[in-house]
């Protein structure tokens, strides 16, 4: 039987896929230490050079016995049992050879690689203090080690995701080189005492602030005290269900109808082959409901040209790569925009005269960091920017895609800031009564156009039940997939509890 606690999280929104990589298996570690222990035993029983071999005492015991045979024992049938003389004490005398086997390396190689090449914040024990995964930024180029910090946002490669679980990456303890205590000369005749079984098991009360991980097998000693391990929490069996309730988005006219004063482009990268114009079929279509399809190159707007140089702009997956971009009237020294733009960012071509000219040039260069200016020319685009021909949002001119345009009387944008109702429900085991939140974060990811959006919700000290309502605004793109990832941390009946959930949604126009 489960309790369902319902809360309401109201946010506006967008997108992830955790992976992990762990070190060697427990079985491999055990085999290594078994061999090491055998070598140590052999070295302890071998005689030093120039000395007689030590004698391992042979203890004769009556069979059967209530314990396994020990090193140096022989088992005889009952009739042949021999009682050792009380005047002859049995003393083990192991002699050390002085030559032990090599100790394990001070740092396992996989761990050494992680500690050196993973970003430092990926090692935070608290998952909310760690950087997000690079794949959450939609940056596969950063999902590698050594981490390219100069060209990547603050994120963690997937291979570093479980690094905090390795603790300080210390090796497991070296096996002892000393033999265990010698068995007794004579087995005792007294049976081992038994512990009476209680009529009903007792339930211990976990100490406060025990992480739920202390109840798992092999809990980490750096996170769990002896008291928590002896009496771990029952677990953090809490699931978060978030169901977005998309508002009704108005269908905005996405075709340019009057000469704009500003055009915003997303720098997506790629050569002239990226050029694409989506149009509705037929005459006078309903642009809110029609299915736009790419048109043939023969039907592209008149006067459009695109040419690549020196290999063209960076590839579309080279997110974060810097280029120098200049937009200006064709054949003019007037500048609408000029500066450094990272692949995945946007730039505005703005005129001070109130209207852009009929034709616009966009030049994309390599970024010359030494001179903080343009390097080799990579691409030149020429198109009609006056709207005398059809110009739609999402039109793609080589490496640049139109995402917003503004005229004196209108602003037409691909992006909208809307309020979303996310129904939040907490599902907990029977017996858990209250979740006290001390932290809640939301990441909104978009398949295209938008960078990840992060919000920390003001929930510190809030308790569920009763229902909780939090309002935050996010920018979204209608008719595009978005993913909201919500993470929560708090105390569940006094024990530390963390929960994570994600949902992908699409909010259509109209």
Give the SSE layout.
Layout: E1 2-11, H1 26-45, E2 59-62, E3 73-76, H2 109-117, H3 226-230, E4 238-245, E5 262-267, E6 278-279, E7 293-294, E8 305-308, E9 322-329, E10 337-342, E11 346-350, E12 359-368, E13 373-384, E14 396-397, E15 400-407, E16 410-413, E17 416-418, E18 420-429, E19 435-446, E20 453-456, E21 463-464, E22 469-471, E23 474-476, E24 481-492, E25 495-506
Notes on the protein architecture:
It is a single chain. The protein is mainly β and 510 residues long. It has a domain at 262-281 and 290-413. 7% of the residues lie in helices and 31% in strands. Strands 5, 11, 14, 15 and 16 form a five-stranded antiparallel β-sheet that branches. A five-stranded antiparallel β-sheet has the order 8-13-12-9-10, with no helix packed on it. Strands 19, 20, 21, 24 and 25 form a five-stranded antiparallel β-sheet that branches. The longest helix is centred in the first third of the chain and has 20 residues, at 26-45. It starts with a strand and ends with a strand.
């Amino acid at each position: 039987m489960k309790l369902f606690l319902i809360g309401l999280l109201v946010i506006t929104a967008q997108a992830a896929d955790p992976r992990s990589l762990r070190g060697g298996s427990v079985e491999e570690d055990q085999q290594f230490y078994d061999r090491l222990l055998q070598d140590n035993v052999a070295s302890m029983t071998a005689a030093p050079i120039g000395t007689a071999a030590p004698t391992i005492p042979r203890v004769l015991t009556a069979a059967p016995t209530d314990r396994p045979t020990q090193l140096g024992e022989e088992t005889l049938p009952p009739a042949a049992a021999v009682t050792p003389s009380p005047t002859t004490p049995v003393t083990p005398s192991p002699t050390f050879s002085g030559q032990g086997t090599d100790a394990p390396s001070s740092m396992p190689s996989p761990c050494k690689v992680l500690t050196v090449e993973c970003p430092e914040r990926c090692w935070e024990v608290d998952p909310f203090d760690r950087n997000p995964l690079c794949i959450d930024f939609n940056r596969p180029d950063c999902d590698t080690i050594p981490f390219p910090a100069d060209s990547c946002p603050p994120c963690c490669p997937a291979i570093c995701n479980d690094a905090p679980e390795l603790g300080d990456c210390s090796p497991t303890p070296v096996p002892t080189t000393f033999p265990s205590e010698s068995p007794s000369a004579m087995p005792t005749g007294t049976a081992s005492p038994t512990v009476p079984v209680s009529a009903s098991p007792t339930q211990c009360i976990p100490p406060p602030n025990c992480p739920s991980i202390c109840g798992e097998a092999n809990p980490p000693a750096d996170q769990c005290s002896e008291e928590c391990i002896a009496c771990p929490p029952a677990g953090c069996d809490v699931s978060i269900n978030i169901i977005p309730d998309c508002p009704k988005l108005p269908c905005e006219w996405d075709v340019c109808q009057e000469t704009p004063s500003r055009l915003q482009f997303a720098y997506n990268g790629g050569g002239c082959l990226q050029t694409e114009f989506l149009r509705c079929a037929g005459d006078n279509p309903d642009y809110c409901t029609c299915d736009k399809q790419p048109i043939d190159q023969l039907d592209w707007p008149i006067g459009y040209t695109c040419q690549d140089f020196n290999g063209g702009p960076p590839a579309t997956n080279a997110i974060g790569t810097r280029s120098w971009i200049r937009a200006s009237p064709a054949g003019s020294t007037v500048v609408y925009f000029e500066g450094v733009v990272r692949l995945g960012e946007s730039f505005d071509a703005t005129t001070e005269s109130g209207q852009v000219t009929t034709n616009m040039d966009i030049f994309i260069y390599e970024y010359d960091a030494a001179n903080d200016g343009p390097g080799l020319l990579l691409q030149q685009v020429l198109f009609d920017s006056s709207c005398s021909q059809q110009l739609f949002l999402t039109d793609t001119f080589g490496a640049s895609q139109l995402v917003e345009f503004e005229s004196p009387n209108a602003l037409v944008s691909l992006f909208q800031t809307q309020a979303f109702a996310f129904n939040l429900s907490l599902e907990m085991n029977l017996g858990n009564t209250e979740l006290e939140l001390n932290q809640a974060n939301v990441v909104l990811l978009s398949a295209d156009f938008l960078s990840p959006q992060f919000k920390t919700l003001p929930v510190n000290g809030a308790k569920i039940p009763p229902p909780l309502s939090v309002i935050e605004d996010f920018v979204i793109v209608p008719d595009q997939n978005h993913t909201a990832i919500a993470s929560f941390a708090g105390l569940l009946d006094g024990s530390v509890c963390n929960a994570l959930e994600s949902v992908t949604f699409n909010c259509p126009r109209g």
